[in-house]
Amino acid sequence: MASLSLQHHTNYFLSRALPTRLKPRPTFSVRMSLQETGPSIAVVGITGAVGQEFLSVLSDRDFPYRSIKMLASKRSAGRRLTFEDNEYVVEELTPESFAGVDIALFSAGGSISKEFGPIAVQHGTIVVDNSSAFRMDETVPLVIPEVNPEAMENIKVGNGKGALIANPNCSTIICLMAATPLHRRAKVLRMVVSTYQAASGAGAAAMDELELQTREVLEGRPPTRKIFKQQYAFNIFSHNASILPNGYNEEEMKMVNETRKIWNDKDVKVTATCIRVPVMRAHAESVNLQFETPLDEDTARDILKNAPGVVVIDDRESNHFPTPLEVSNKDDVAVGRIRQDLSLDGNQGLDIFVCGDQIRKGAALNAIQIAEKLQ
């Protein structure tokens, strides 16, 4: 009960302190989601952190559906879940699971996506995949709806054809939500990103480990280390993705390659350093942008204030800028610390600081926004 009470007070404080677009959604709306005219949906990986967030976002956005399947591994099959006042039984994921399914939301890991994604497509299902399995496949659109919806404009429910659509990496989504409006105005030539990534990016087990380690360290006990090799509580370390021959890790190269694909610009220069920090569920990123055309900070601030899915928190007088806590459980990506890069002459560069909820906009919300455009 203590943790529930703390969350209640935290949400109340945030609702009083944040800009309107970042306030928590009301909890007393009437749900109109279950509709005979809506698509049939399957959620693959329903018991994971992102799978559960899929359900939360579907409900929050009143996403219309005529039926929904809860799919997971054999280990989780048989569990009962209540969603929008209806009880569902979790079903084991099998090749037959996609019969009659219009849209499948996948978040069960790359190996599951590679095995079952093509099977679902053969059934005529449109797969929105949250893993990295298909992101760099030239035949698969990699989509952020606010950034490049045209990449999937020919894929629609009801045309009788299955398809794959890839959800970008969470860090890429959060970064490009802020960088793209500026890129459209002044064309980014080079982008340098440093990330500060939350436990949620490594799943529910990593979030549990951070909470457990925090208690253990405060009590003077050795921290339990099952998910990460390093102590996570009260520490930061290089992202736990595998190191590649070029010295970058896989997470960093995802940002490089995915940005080029989403922007359809193979020449844009991108470099990234990805760090894991002891934050529960929202990523932060320091982004340095070098432009082809001069762009001053006041114009940039106005552009970002009018960008969809972006909110500006940039109060220099009170030293108030985006924090992971403020964007946790929120849809919008927050941007602040907007300032000229003093190392470049002639307004050719900017520094910005970006925060976004990794589970929400960095995963579930982005996928469901894609699904909304399929109808």
TrEMBL record:
Active site (catalytic residues): C170, H283
Signal sequence annotation: none
Reactions listed under catalytic activity: L-aspartate 4-semialdehyde + phosphate + NADP(+) = 4-phospho-L-aspartate + NADPH + H(+)
Main enzyme class: oxidoreductase
Record-linked InterPro entries: Asp_semialdehyde_DH, Asp_semialdehyde_DH_beta, NAD(P)-bd_dom_sf, Semialdehyde_DH_NAD-bd, Semialdhyde_DH_dimer_dom
Protein EC: 1.2.1.11
GO-annotated biological processes: diaminopimelate biosynthetic process; isoleucine biosynthetic process; lysine biosynthetic process via diaminopimelate; methionine biosynthetic process; threonine biosynthetic process
Molecular function, one GO term: protein dimerization activity
Semialdehyde dehydrogenase NAD-binding domain residues: 40-155
Keywords for this protein: Amino-acid biosynthesis, Diaminopimelate biosynthesis, Lysine biosynthesis, Methionine biosynthesis, NADP, Oxidoreductase, Threonine biosynthesis
Pfam families: Semialdhyde_dh (PF01118), Semialdhyde_dhC (PF02774)
Functional pathway: Amino-acid biosynthesis; L-methionine biosynthesis via de novo pathway; L-homoserine from L-aspartate: step 2/3; Amino-acid biosynthesis; L-threonine biosynthesis; L-threonine from L-aspartate: step 2/5
Keyword match Transit peptide: no
PANTHER family linked: ASPARTATE-SEMIALDEHYDE DEHYDROGENASE (PTHR46278:SF2), DEHYDROGENASE, PUTATIVE-RELATED (PTHR46278)
Subunit structure: Homodimer.
Family, as annotated: Belongs to the aspartate-semialdehyde dehydrogenase family.
Cited NCBIfam families: asd_B (TIGR01296), PRK14874.1 (NF011456)
Name the UniProt record assigns to this protein: aspartate-semialdehyde dehydrogenase
Lineage: Eukaryota, Viridiplantae, Streptophyta, Embryophyta, Tracheophyta
